[in-house]
Amino acid sequence: MNKPVIVALDFADDFECINFLNQFPKDQKLFLKIGLEMFCQFGYPFVRNLRERGYNIFLDLKLHDIPNTVKRTCEMIAKWDVQMLTVHASGGAEMIAAAKKGLAGSDTKLLAVTQLTSLGQTELRDELQVPLKSQDYVTHLAKLAFDNKADGVISSALEVPMIKQATSEDFLCVTPGIRPKASQVEDQKRVATPAKAKTLGSDAIVVGRPITLAENGYQAYMNICKEWNK
Question: Do 121 and 130 form a contact (C-beta atoms < 8 A)?
């Protein structure tokens, strides 16, 4: 897999989204993340429209349910020709394995979410009552995903070296919580710059507001790509 900069689409409506995408040259092969908010508003027709325009799609639905429900959902999504799909690793071994079975026959990569980048050690200990250190918990969930045939994980860049060591160099680590040096951290707790993520071994980075809210989204994207690829 090429190491893409994935643009997270967080728009109030599809018209605003298309206006944003029209800033980019038609031959720019963008990789786009569609999360719960936009998917719940516009559904599969929106996904299909973006695929027909030639964009690669990371469908970030973070599925988390009983194994049979997740498997049947993945069987439907397998027909959509998306490049990535997420489940929650905390759904357990059987659920992860069921999701992979549901995607059988498709090229969709199954990625398991380890720990949300909005959660730090304090939230893990006090709210979720997980006794492990954050990095140990992430590594544990990544190993669970790896053992049950997921293609990779979503994690902070800070945990990538340990995840690779616990799994495989070929196990994909897709990294949100990316902020250029000049950007505000906002609601993310475990963040890294594009250059730092590259150094730590991330296979792809996900960037939203520093691109989508920029005055010139195309230039912001190109600046991040330059930092990521150098």
Answer: no
